User: Fold this.
Amino acid sequence: MGTTFLPVASIVSAACGRDGWMIVLPAFVLGIPYGLMVLSLLSQFPNKNLLQISEIVFGKWIGKLIGVFYILITGYFGGLLLGQAGDIYERSIMPLTPIGLFYLGTIILVFYLCKSGIEVFARFSEAVFPLILLALILNLTLSISRIEPGELLPILSEGVMPLFWGGLKVAPFAMEYILFMAGISAFLPTDMKEIGQLRREVCRAVFLVGILDMFVALQQILVFGPFETTRVVYGLLVLGKMVEVSRTVAGVESLFLGVWLGALVIKISAFLFTTVWGLETVMNLKGLKWQIAVCSVFMGIAFGFVRGSALISEIAFVDNYLILPFAAIWILGLWGAVRWKKGKNIRGN
Amino acid sequence: MRSWMKMFKELTLRPKGRQVRKTPAYSFDEDLNKPVSGPKVKEILSKSSDVVFREFYLQGKESIPCIMAGVDGLVDKNLLDQFVLKPLMVDLPGRRELAQVTLANVVDSTIQYLLPGLEIKKISKLGDAINAILSGDAVIFFGESKEAIVIGARGWANSGINEPVAESVIKGPHEGFTETLRINTSLLRRKIKHPSLRLISLKLGELTNTDIVVTYIDKVASPDVVSEVLRRLSVIKMDGVLESGYVEEMIEDFPYSPFPQIAYTERPDVLAGKLLEGKVGIMVDGTPIVLVVPAILTQFLNVNEDYYQRAMTAILFRFVRYIGAFIAITAPSVYIAVTTFHQEIIPTDLLMSIAAGREGVPFPALLEALLMTIVLEILQEAGLRLPKPIGQTIGIVGALIIGDAAVKASLVSPLMVIVIGITAVSSYAIPYYDLSLAVRLTRFPLMVLAGSLGFFGVSVGLYAGLIHLLSLRSFGVPYMSPIAPMRIRSLLQDTFVRAPWWAMKRRPQLLEIENPRSGGKGKE
Amino acid sequence: METKRHQKVNRIAALILIVCLLFLPGCWGKREVEELAPLIGIGFDLGKKPGTFLITMQLAKPKQGGGESVAKIEDRTFSVEVASAREATEMVYKISSRIPFMGSLKVIVIGEGAAKAGFNDIIDFAQRFSEFRRTMFLVLTKGKAQTLLNMKLRDGELPAMSIKNHMEQGNNLSTFPTVRLGHYLTILGTQSTAPILPIVESIKSGEDGIEYNNEKEGKELHIQGAGVLHGDQLVDYLTDQETKGYMWLENNVQNRLINTMDDKGNVSFGGQVLKSKTRYKLVNNNGVIGLQYQIQASISVDEVIGIKQQLSEPEWVDLMNQAENSYAKVIKEECELSIIKERDLSLDFLGIGRLIEERNSSYWKTIKDQWEEKIADFPLTVNVQVSVHHSGMSSSSSTTNSVEEGKE
Assistant:
């Protein structure tokens, strides 16, 4: 979820101008029903991930097909994100360093994290999240002095329709999270009390990230105005560049970048995990060597997209036309099918 | 949200007149009000190896079996042998009264005719008896008699107990463990006078036969941790154990990690405090250093004095220590990264003076920093082993050479000297020597990463370190708890801040176990 | 078995890491501080050939002062005639022994010629290249930026540094707009507002009523007035008065020195603006929509000129009311001057279009397309409210009643 902070403002302001910030939170909230669906499936099929459940519900071959899709999408997207890590660094603070080193450094972290297991991964996100929060808050508060007055007004001058399209652009962020949940579900506790707790956690996480993202978008529109916000590639970094603490420190984006790297590592690891689980369930490929294999595939994809502009449009493409429809249809379909079967069984008895 | 409010209230509202500390319920709690009984006391106390029981017959009469109990190390053995056991056991002819002693009048007769001591008292409650034993008195039980005799035989070692050099405090007790195991257990016993304090004896080392005592508080320490400690100790096979460091290396979880996974202390008050938190102590004969497990990272940055000072000042000093640790790890690498990769961070005026300072310095910043750090390490190491008078010379030479002459000769830049100085001072703010060693070690790879990849390298290094720390466990307890897995209660109570004692209602959450520390709250 | 393999993997991973660490100091993209020549200011002029710019780069060369470790800054200023900013860097690179470092750039000076021709193409580099920050200042100069940057200042400071220091203190004076690159780009983004940039000029002794000791070599700089741009092209200059009016109307005044001197010989006042706030209101006057400015300012009275007699307490209170009125009058005059200018130019440098959009976006949509024609007769009113907080450490004047020379 962490990396959504970087592009979110640019995406929403492109879609709906100065009102873009309003749609961020609702679009994230869209993820909640999906999260709850995953949890309800989980309570019915304990210790199984969604791919295994699909095989049970839809039959082996359709299940496998979905699994292959799942692996392809998550694997491809993970690689793209790795590319983004390199792109961010090369573009903003270290233009002369070979981009491969950024890929390498990041993938080493990701691999190390995944090798240490899901528990360490969970703890890592837990430890890094406060850092992200702190960096965001610092970034936002320190750039308050750069706010241009009146950039937010008028509200809703273009009507509500653009907001809807903007929402569609943001919704994939929540769906990325849901895809990860689909994979992690096999590891989640299954008794009812804890599922209740998980429900609250899901809502809390979605709201927290949604609200933060909203503030990020809001602040950028306030500082840059909608036109510039659209144009700036990684707005938050530019915001970081504009931070000035009196005359001592000017522009601390390289420090903030360290935190964003943590966020990216979390996200790429999440996709590495999902891909590896996918391989495990669908093709029964287990063990360290497959993790290494997936890592090298990530590296390959990243090297395939050293061109930053192509990378960004590719990420947007995968987000909008692969992840969003896939997650939306698959999970909804699965949940619906399970409900329907259950209803039939009850009637049948 | 409401749970947050509740927690906040719980932590801030001062309980008025409420009991703040409470021990867990024990199976023997009810017995404490019952009349004295030798076998019962033995049953309760015999789980600790330092309580000794001497069974004998009064004046050789088999109708009156006696048990004398006392804590080894606390009682004066000479006095007991000469003036208690001897008169009680050895038959003195010609005393008519003694011939008619029965269970009914044995206590009075003994006091009147047999015991010569001054400080002798009659008690009838079991609880009093246990209290007396654990406080260092000896207690004699007579068969089924409903009364017992307390003999004031306190006599513990006071000589040889000095303040530990490595762990000195300003406010707090100035005593430390010694090289003798018995004295050490008695020091601990004097802090915790409760039957639930367990001391379990072991022998390690096939040739040295070193005595080891595992100590914990029953029902406060996690039984899983206790049994794991005992299991790991029992599988150790080595010919000699000369210091607790031998044991430490044999039982720690991740031997390749530079970070200490087992805490140690030389202070009885620290050990007692840790035991009250639910930890397990391992005492080794022949060394004043007692190991404490399980250890978490943040504990290495907290010191016992935090608990003796006012909470507000303690919070400030903890804050200073955390900052110090962070600076000690990152300062040189950040300096390298900033001056060789990210000059845009530096304000223009400062940039000019850094550049002017580096004018004529023949080394790149990375090499300069590495050299300086290595020189610093050499100075530290050299000063450590030298006798004190020569040690001071090292300081002067170091200050002159590194500080002044090197700058004047344009070998290093003045700012680098400042950075290295700050780093050195910061690393002394880390209270545990083991941790500061780990910090000194991790500095080097970070500097190399900073010199080659700037902040990206530093972040990669720090994150790798973080992942490493997160994957560590000490006796089943995640090393980075309570930060991750996050335990908000512990975070607010006793990690970065130190809540006032009245707000510390629960013991730290290790593993998933949660123990009530105070009255009321835990029982809901 | 599994653990053994794990250990092996661990060991291999550790080995790889160590090898990486050993070979990493290949130092990609590494620049030692002392190898850099920090760029402090950059100036843009038109080149002689069409399509080229004359780019002036002011680099600082840090130098260790003899014996002391206090840094001294040496001036290295180059001007090159090139088609792109990157080419200029290349040229400078060739001459200078150090790497021109852009991250420290604080000031962009745009010469008159370049400003008139439009400078967005050349400024694109400044907002795109990652080392630059959007917080740097944009200034105009009448004449060439080259001459300005090459000027020798009397205190030995680099002109670019001096401009930067001036701009950072701009808030205390509030007589010229401090325009940062980010602000300029945002204004461009609004599409209806015309950007405005402050003007830096060199002044010789004797100019503008300022004299200084001419013996010491060098000149002085000052910032006064502003230039109005149409997009990126300079259209006209604002006078000092008009710029001050702009500052009031833009709600940009923080602290300002103000005086009410006029030729008529009335009692006049000098003081400092302690606080000011400008509010905007759209008023609908029988179907004609107009904009009302409401300026509220708190001003102190620091000097009173022209009272010839001791005043009693009520008289003094009256005088202070008079002071409020004269202050208000001065402010209003300044504002009206700049409104007249705006109407003359038909360029919305006051950002009125945006103000309308913010307050009544549906009305704005109807007039948006003919906005430039509409500016000339769009109804604008200015209300000024001044409150004099105090008159300093004394009341009344120092002249006494007994010496009544001035009294008629």
